[in-house]
Amino acid sequence: MICSISGTTPEEPVVSTKSGHVFEKRLIEKYVEVNGKDPITNEPISQSDLVEIKGTSKIGVKPRPPIATSIPSMLQIFQNEWDSIMLETYTLKQHLDTVRKELSHALYQHDAACRVIARLIKERDQARNALATASVQLPGGRGQSGEPMDTDIPTGISDEVKEKMQKKSAELSGERKRRTVPETLPTPEVVSTYSTISSNPIHKASTPGILCVDTHPFKQEFIVTGGVDSSVVLFNKDTSRIASTLTGHTKRITSVQFYPTPNELIVLSSSQDKTARVWREDGEGKLGASHVVRVHDDEVVGVSLHATGDYFVTASADKTWAFHDIHSGRCLMRVADPQVQAGFECVQFHPDGLILGTGTADSLVRVWDIKSQQNVATFEGHSGRVVDIAFSENGYYLATAGGEGIKIWDLRRLKNFYNIPLEGVNAVAWDYSGSYLAASGNDIRIFHGKSFTPVQTYLGHESTVTDIKFSRNADWFASTSMDRFLKIWGSA
After folding, report:
1. Are strands 374-379 and 388-391 parallel, antiparallel or unpaired?
2. How far is CA 181 from each of CA 82, 336, 474, 475, rounded to the nearest angstrom?
3. Which residues have C-beta within 8 Å of that of residue 355, sequence separation ≥ 6?
4. What is the pLDDT of residues 232-260, one digit of tens each?
5. Which comes out higher in pLDDT, residue 61 or 19?
6. Residue 477 pLDDT class (50, 70, 90 cuts)
């Protein structure tokens, strides 16, 4: 069909009843509106004389323009379209090249900025450590909070200090005899159902691994850990957030311990950098190192607080242990016994505070009298390093961990009366009531505190479990691992 006016295929064809010719609807309607006649016969015509051809209106494909009715014309159209596409592609390539250059420049600037920031942070930390070292080495040097550092020559444990320790021991011994197991203590059946409550990667990912942990006996929302990254982290388990990160040590942290007071936060720590530190809150509530102990010639393997809360001991791989005043930071006594042939691996005060337990690298467990600083008992039986030591709160039992497992000693008879074979054990810990004994190594295990039968084995860490501590009432416990996670276990 060809429009009799335009000579092209109509998009909306209509036929005139006057002439029978086909027209483009819009053209014939305009012609009729102006002339009122049929363009072919010149007969009068109206809009009603135009009949739409059914089935062909509004066709999907528009008619081919006259210019595209021959092959040369179509080739010309294709050539023009190809040229347009090529020009657009060239423009897009130029824009892409420009954007790539801008992105490369931005990434270079970002990388340079990160390197500068890392270098500045490293220089800042080095300057802080150098300042701390210089402050300690100066006579009468003072710590970050203005407290005197441990630079004085040991004066020995005075009679006044001994009397204070004796009085405290008698007080605690009397309380222990009257103490009963609390009714709120979870039963073994409940403890056996404990599962992971939270899992928290709180130390640096660049140097993964958490080596030690402690739980606060009064402010039970707080947990403190020491890591391979040389930092001490205070963690709030209720908010699942880090409350404070304590920096100052330059090597791995070997032990951490809370000062048991409900009034303020005080933390003790020891490190492979040959120092121990006392961290105390300042006037603004921020924790800082109030004392830095530098009396050892090798790594400090552990720190333990005396029952009075006024003194603490440190033990070192240099085969010595030292007794310090926590308030002044002064070393009162440094003990080097010629009978000790290997460095210490662990240390802990007896709950009464009159004896001290240590484990050594030559498989020996030594018990010391604090007042006389004498080795009053030596336990043999381990086949490797004694890596941890823990006194039960009942005052009678001592648990030690070595290469072949755990040994339980009766301090009244000075005898090993029970062995728990457990390869790879790293740490042991009693709960406050003495009802449970926990061990960590390749996994976590909890035993009855009297029969030493297994309560449960807990799996969840992806690497070696380095330490474990119970809460005050044993209703939850915390564990640390070389997988960088602090895990909290309890009833879901």
Report:
1. unpaired
2. 91, 40, 12, 14
3. 349, 367, 368, 369, 370, 376
4. 999 999 999 999 999 999 999 999 999 99
5. 19
6. very high
How far, in Å, CA of 212 to CA of 137, rounded? Answer: 29
pLDDT band of residue 64 (cuts 50, 70, 90) is: low
Per cent of the chain over pLDDT 70 is 92
DSSP-assigned beta bridge partners for residue 305: 312
**Residue 187, exposed/middle/buried by CB under 10 A (0-12, 13-18, 19+)?**
exposed
Residue 47 near residue 62, CB atoms below 8 Å: no
If you average pLDDT over residues 16-40, what whole number do you get?
89
Which two three-digit tokens encode residue 182?
């609390």
Q: What's the half-sphere exposure (Cβ side, CA atoms, 13 Å) at 379?
A: 27
- Flag whether pLDDT at 137 surpasses 60: no
Phi, psi of 247, deg, nearest 5: -115, 150
β strands within 309-391, DSSP E = 311-316, 320-325, 331-336, 344-349, 355-360, 365-369, 374-379, 388-391
What sign results for the dihedral spanned by CA atoms 26, 31, 33, 37?
negative
Supply the pTM of this predicted model: 0.70
Pairing of strands 13-16, 232-236: unpaired
Side-chain-side CA neighbours of 137 within 13 Å: the count stands at 6
Identify the bridge partners of residue 366 per DSSP, sorted by sequence position: 358, 378
Q: Is 15 helix (H, G, I), strand (E, B) or coil?
A: strand
Number of alpha carbons in the 13 Å side-chain half-sphere of residue 452: 16
Say if residue 103's pLDDT is above 70.
Answer: yes
CA distances from 330 to 165, 250, 298, 371 (A): 17, 22, 19, 17
- The gap from C-alpha 465 to its chain's centroid, in whole angstroms, comes to 15
Q: Strand, coil or helix: what is 26? A: helix
Q: Which of 30-34, 59-63, 409-413, 467-471 has the lowest mean pLDDT?
A: 59-63
Choose among 306, 302, 319, 209: nearest CA to 255: 302
Dist. CA 450–CA 430, nearest whole Å: 11
Question: Would you tell me how many other CB atoms lie within 10 Å of the CB of residue 319?
Answer: 21
Q: What is the mean pLDDT of residues 308-318?
A: 96
Residues 6+ apart with CB under 8 A from 186: 473, 474, 475, 491
